[in-house]
Design a protein that fits this description.
Helices cover 18% and strands 16% of the residues. The chain starts with a helix and ends in a 14-residue tail after the last helix. It has a single domain, classed as Leucine-rich repeat, LRR (right-handed beta-alpha superhelix) (Alpha-Beta Horseshoe), CATH 3.80.10.10. The relative contact order is 0.07. The chain contains eight helices and 20 strands. With 476 residues, the protein is an alpha/beta fold. The strands form three sheets. It has a twelve-stranded mixed sheet with strand order 1-2-3-4-6-8-10-12-14-16-18-20. A five-stranded parallel sheet has the order 11-13-15-17-19. Strands 5-7-9 form a three-stranded parallel sheet, with no helix packed on it.
């Protein structure tokens, strides 16, 4: 019994010592947490009593560093830009960003696209990927911009395919070419397109009166409205446009040609295939220094040709075929030394074909068929032989393929006259070609006569083809 008591007493002493030691250690730790005393001694290894209680963790202050990043190491981030990121970085310039929504809005209007053109209108590389658009550096901004639209023969279509909000949303364009498409509606005001130089809306579905809005495009050099359904009157201001090319053929204009016709600076003027009435204004002589080719064919023009036509000293092509003109050929025509093509066919001209006109040195195609001419001289007969002059279905009875004597007699049974008929004998030029001069100059009259429609040198005849695209740069 005594031994058990001693053992229990020993156990109690040991436990008491452990408790006292723990209390002492805890007090020391508390003291060192708030004071400047030395840190507590490290506990001995292999100690039989439990480790002392650790102090409560302190809450970190907000100013402490954030926790370390996750272990997954991402790729190094790019160097941050000096300025906030901007959408313009995807375009070559601000001017191209400006037209991007305009093109995309127009794209939604196109429901017919047989060539798949609009499929290329995606992304933001307008200059590189978009078919039908051309870019260049725009003056004043010194940056890349949309400089031109070339939709020629794309045959785009849609029930609401209009120019409204499209062409006016392209402020930097120099040319807009859209031959052979299906544009409709009206033409918007073009006065804000300060660089617009060429406008080709030929062979589309425009209707209504003459589009006065084109008169506000003050820098136009090329205006092509042919093969539409414009009707009514054309304003005299058309002939004040500072254009080199003026094509309004194949519409439904019904009126007298404005008296200021000669005010036009156009070098190529085509009024063909309309319903113009009356005569050719005498003011045409005012275009003597500029006009190269003019077509009046297939209208309802009447009267006699004015002698002032003979003052067109630079003219190469003159055509009044399929009208109701009458009278003799003015003698002033012998002054047209640069004439290459002259057509008076299918009218009611009469009298003798002037030998001086048959002497013109550059003449390649001279057509007088289906009239009532009664006489041709030796030079004209030489042109007939060489295929330059066509006089079939006239009243030159000694030649083949003429009208019947009865038809000729019926025509001449009426009183035939022209106002100011004496002016038709006036020759305004001082030089008149003779056969001797022609032979001494070496000019050949035996060259075969190409058909006017097939002759690429005559841009005006090419414009009578619906789908033909006129490249103005070839004729500058």
């Amino acid at each position: 019994m005594g031994g058990r008591r001693k053992f229990l007493l020993f156990i109690c002493v040991i436990v008491g010592c452990i408790i006292i030691s723990c209390i002492i250690i805890a007090c020391i730790n508390i003291g060192t947490g708030g004071g400047d005393g030395p840190p507590p001694s490290a506990p001995l290894e292999n100690q039989d009593f439990p480790p002392p209680r650790q102090p409560s963790p302190t809450i970190p202050k907000p100013s402490l560093l954030p926790p370390p990043p996750p272990k997954i190491s991402p790729s190094p981030p790019p160097k941050p830009p000096l300025l906030p990121p901007n959408e313009i970085d995807a375009f070559e310039s601000l001017r191209l960003k400006l037209v991007f929504p305009v093109i995309q809005a127009f794209k939604k209007k196109v429901v017919k696209d047989p060539l798949g053109i609009t499929k290329t209108w995606k992304g933001k590389d307008i200059c590189g990927d978009y078919k039908g658009f051309k870019c260049d550096t725009v003056p004043g901004f010194n940056q890349k911009a949309l400089s031109g639209v070339n939709f020629n023969q794309f045959n785009l279509g849609g029930p609401n395919l209009t120019l409204t909000d499209f062409i006016t949303g392209l402020p930097d364009i120099v040319f807009f070419h859209a031959n052979s498409n299906n544009f409709t509606g009206s033409i918007p005001n073009l006065n804000k397109l300060r660089y617009l130089d060429e406008l080709d809306l030929s062979n589309n579905n425009f209707i209504g009166n003459f589009p006065y809005q084109v008169l506000r495009a003050h820098h136009l050099k090329f205006l092509d409205l042919r093969f539409n359904t414009f009707a009514g009157l054309i304003p005299p201001q058309v002939f004040l446009l500072n254009v080199d090319f003026l094509f309004i053929n194949n519409n439904n204009f019904i009126q007298k040609i404005p008296d200021n016709l000669g005010s036009t600076p156009a070098r190529y003027l085509i009024l063909a295939n309309n319903k113009f009435i009356g005569g050719i204004p005498k003011s045409i002589s005012q275009a003597s220094n500029t006009l190269l080719e003019v077509l009046f064919l297939n209208n309802q023009l009447t009267g006699c040709l004015p002698y002032e036509i003979g003052l067109l000293k630079k003219a190469r092509v003159f055509d009044v075929e399929s009208n109701y003109f009458t009278g003799p050929i003015p003698h002033s025509f012998q002054c047209l030394k640069k004439f290459e093509a002259l057509s008076l066919a299918r009218n009611k001209f009469y009298g003798e074909v002037p030998e001086a006109v048959c002497s013109l040195p550059e003449l390649l195609n001279f057509t007088l068929s289906y009239n009532y001419f009664t006489k041709v001289g030796p030079l004209c007969q030489e042109l007939i032989k060489n295929g330059v002059l066509d006089v079939k279905m006239n009243c030159v009875l000694e030649l083949p393929n003429q009208r019947s004597p009865a038809a000729c007699a019926k025509f001449f049974s009426r009183t035939l006259s022209c106002p100011n008929e004496t002016s038709l004998a006036y020759v305004p030029c001082s030089e008149v070609y003779t056969r001797a001069q022609l032979e001494s100059s070496g000019i050949q009259l035996t060259s075969p006569a190409p058909s006017p429609v097939q002759a690429p040198r005559w841009v005006s005849y090419a414009a009578l083809s619906r789908h033909h695209v006129i490249n103005a740069s070839m004729y500058h």
